Amino acid sequence: MIEVTTRYAVAVRRSAPFRQFLADEPGTAARVLFAEPGRVHRRFIRAQVDIFVDVLGPDLANHAAPESLAYLYIRIVEPAIYAELLTGRQPDLDLRGGAAGREIARSGCRRRRSASARPR
Fold it and tell me: Is pTM, for the whole model, over 0.70?
């Protein structure tokens, strides 16, 4: 899961037109990326749910709240991907996605194991 996030973040950061858009139109970029009418954030959450299901197992939906987990994960990862837009700093793609992402993944796995270990 972390590898998929890292690949995505690197691809986004390498896109010269995207970087130029962030630099030239920060207000518009923020609205498009983060506001509901832009729907980019919502699609990012749906895509992350699919990644969680692929990586953590299809029964994740039965034992955890995958959309809430994806929302939290994305909120942690976004400052690394869009650092200059949100904080004015250069992105550090390992800063947020690494340790925080692994902890979220472990949390989802622990929930899944503990729920499956309960007597039925």
Answer: no
